[in-house]
Amino acid sequence: MPSEISRRIKQSGRVLLKGSPTASAKREVPAITLEEVAEAKEFFPLEKFFIFGHARSGTTLLTRLVRVHNKVHCNYQAHFFTRYPTLESLVDDESIGLWLARRSNRWNQGRDLSPLVLRATSDFIMERDAHSAGKGDPGCLVGDKSPNSLLDGEAVHRLVKVYPDARLIFIVRDGRDALISHRFQAFIDNPQSLSKEDLRIRDNFSQEPEQFYTGQRSLFTEKSLRRGAQGWMRNVTETDLAAKERLADRYHHLRYEDLLDDPQCEMIDVWRFLGVDTDDPTIKDALDTELALNPDAEWQRKKAGDIAGALEKGKSGSWRELLTTRDKEIYWEEAGNALKAWGYVEQ
Length: 347
Fold this sequence. Notes:
Helices cover 55% and strands 8% of the residues. It is α/β, with parallel strands linked by helices. It has a single domain (34-341), classed as Rossmann fold, CATH 3.40.50.300. Strands 2-3-1-4-5 form a 5-stranded parallel beta sheet, with helices on both faces. Helix 6 (153-162) packs parallel to helix 10, helix 7 (175-189) packs across helix 14 and helix 10 runs parallel beside helix 16 (325-341).
C-alpha cells in the first residue's frame, strides 16, 4: 500500500511538471519479407485468400458459394485490413515497435518482429476456423470476406504488407443496386444511425411504399445519394487499380450480376483462380442448394417485415424501378464513368 501511494504521488508530480501524458506516437510498420513469409508458412501452411467488395455487393453470397468446395473455407468479416482499427493497430504504437525490435530481445534475431506478429495472428484466427470446419488438411485454402468500402484501395496496400503471397477476389455490383440495398439495410438494421430527414423518409416509406416502389418518390436525400455514388465509384476504381498493381495474377474480379446469371461458370473460374480441383460432380448440386437459400432476406423479414417484405433480396436491376428520374441523373453525374467501365448502362 505505501508503495502504491508513493507511485501515485510521483505520477501526479510528473503531470504537474510536464502535463497530461499524450497518446503514444504511431509508426510505419515494416512490410513482411519473403523470408518471413516462408517462416510463417512452416507453422501455418494453408494458402490464404481474401474477398473484398463494396458494401451490399454480394460478398456474402460469394463467400457462401466459394466454401461449398470441400477444399475451401471462408468466414466473415475479421476486417484485418478493411476497417479501423485494422490488424496493424496491434503493433503500430511506437513503444510496441521498440519492444519488438529491441536489440536485447534475443527472440527477434535482430529484426523487428512486427510483421510476423501480424501474420501469425491472422493466420491463427483463420486456420483455427478452417480446422473446426474440417478443412485444415494440406491442399485446403482459407479466406476472409470483409467489405472494403471504408478503406477502398488502402485496404489492398495493407493486405499486401502482410500477405504478399495471398490471392484477392473482388466482387463488383451495379452501384445503384448496391446503394438501394444499403439503404434498406439501414432502414431495417440501423435506424438509430439515420438523420431526422432519413427517418422521415423511412416513416413515409413504411406508410406509403407504392410511391417509392414506382419511382415517384425518392428514398434518398440528394446529399446522401451523391455521397453514395461517390463512395461506390472511389471503391471500385481504387480497389481494382491497387489490386492490379500490387497483386497482378493473384487478383481476380467478377460482377455480381454475372454470378447470378451463370453461377456455375463464375464459381468454376473462382475455384480455378484459387487453384483447387473443379471436377467433382457433386459441386453443381451443392451450388444449387446454396443458391436456393437467402438467410439475409429471412432475417430482415423477421426484423422489419413492413419494410423488407416487398423488396426481393439480391435482385439485379431494382434501381430501375426504385430510383426516381432525378435520382438516376444524379447517380450518373457522379459515377457514370465507373459504371461504364464495369459494363453498366445509363438507363
